[in-house]
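Look over both lines:
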Amino acid sequence: MAEPNARPGPASSPSGPVRGPHGNPRYAPQAAPRTGNGYAPLTAGPAPQPPAAPAGKNVVRSSLLMGAGSLVSRVTGFGRTVVVSAAIGAGLLGNSYTTAQYFPQMIYELVLGGVFASIILPLFVKAHKNDADGGNAFAQRLLTLATLILGAAAILVTACAPLIAAVIAEPAQRELVTEFSYLMLPALLFYGLFAILSGVLNSRERFGAPMWVPIINNLVVITVAAVFYAVYTSDATPNAAGELFGSADQVSAGMVVLLGGGTTAGVVIQVLCLAPALRRAGFRWRPRFDFRALPLRQIRRMAGWTLLFVAANQVAVMAVLKVANTAAGNAAPDQFVSGTTVYNNAYLMMMMAHGIVAVSVITALMPRMTRAADARHWPELAGHLSSGIRLASFLLVPISATFIALHEPIALAIFQWGAYDRTMALATGQALAWVGIVLLAFSISQLQIYAFYAQTDTKTPALFNLPVIAFRIGGYLLAFAFLPLEWVVVGLFAANGVSYLVSLLLSMSLLRKRIGLLDMRRTLNGLVRTTTAAAIAGGAAYGGWLLWPDLPDDGWGAKLGQLLAAFVLGTALLGVYVAACLVLRVTEMASLQATVRAKLRR
């Protein structure tokens, strides 16, 4: 997708002012306890206390469990992308499948995603704390309402699959995209149910299942792709351009059913696997239709700006899909042009790096930034943000250097498998080099957006996101208009980079007016030093790749050589970066040294 929907998570967005009994007889205390609306207790006595959060070793164990689950989920998710790519390639079939796979996620974000993350999830926590039944009735009402809304949306958009495909897909792929969409759009319902049921578990301090269950989904799709490879890919015949499944007559109904149905089955199984954890948490879902007890008016009021933010991002997603599909669709019969699959694979590499580094930094900083914002301690908030930017930059700059300097061996080692041939892998490498260029601007812009969310401000990011999206879509159109077809996907990443820079500068300017100086002189000084160190390391690694012995184009010898080159040169790049940071006296490097020494003394 063009950009993840950066929005407040459960720890970052308080649910707004308390709408307790004051001034509203509907919420007056009752003689007998009844279930609440997620805002305030509705009993005559004090609010029931939720179970105490685990302390000491239990907290550490929970944190380790979540961290391990997140890492394994990201690794298996990336493995899923590689296996699917090997099975179906980056031609007509791969682009059609990738395009159809976006649709249920896009529509889920529009229907519920933004509202859930910024408004409803915090309400689960309040309901569990304040309601006499621990929030069960609130969750049951919300689940019932969401099921009705998402079910109706799933039926409607599935019926409109041909229209959606006509807007996004090219003529040669519309039939395939439509067939995949009929099978994959119903997953919209299950994406929503998984999000809400995960919120129920998280509000009850049950974090393990929502973190680990997506791994099962990844394994299901990996299995489906492996079966597809064994049944169809291994015996497939390339077309005139040397591609497998490069024309619609090479794709059978059985292929579509296996891929599309298997992908949706993974989402369904993911939801079903939450059932044991929900039972252990004491939650039973019984349909409840007394929706008047839900704070719908307040939810609508607070969610409006978040929905604007999400909707603008989904327009950008539709634009990037359309441009990538059009570029691939305009290729000559014997020419490979990168399309949606190549863009998506390179983008997932960026999101994996961002997720491992920047999201971890955001998660650690959000409670501190939120407390500082609640107390209106603006210098403290600015200090936390500045330290987060410096730490994220220190960790991300060598990753960017790796993507730029070693894009070719990395792309060949990871993606050149099965139907994803050398030409497709090299095209992915070209896009990966631009991922390295734009990664840091993207992650810093996301960190600054979360500084607004720490202040419970969803309006400002939604408004300045509009010109950001305008720059992005304008860049997409310029890339398609002026670049050769084979460079359009690279141009899409360049357009993303410009929009990330615009977002960074706008958010920085607005934050400076609101919370004061962001200590940017110190941040820029650190960034210059780390970038210099990364440039030295990247230059050394690239020189090593130029001197690396020539490898055959295919076969196990080529694959072993690619893997060895990526590992050896990547390790060398990291070593040179660390050494250069020590010589240049990078502050974060000194802090890391001190931490390691303290650990070793224990």
About this structure: The radius of gyration is 25 Å.
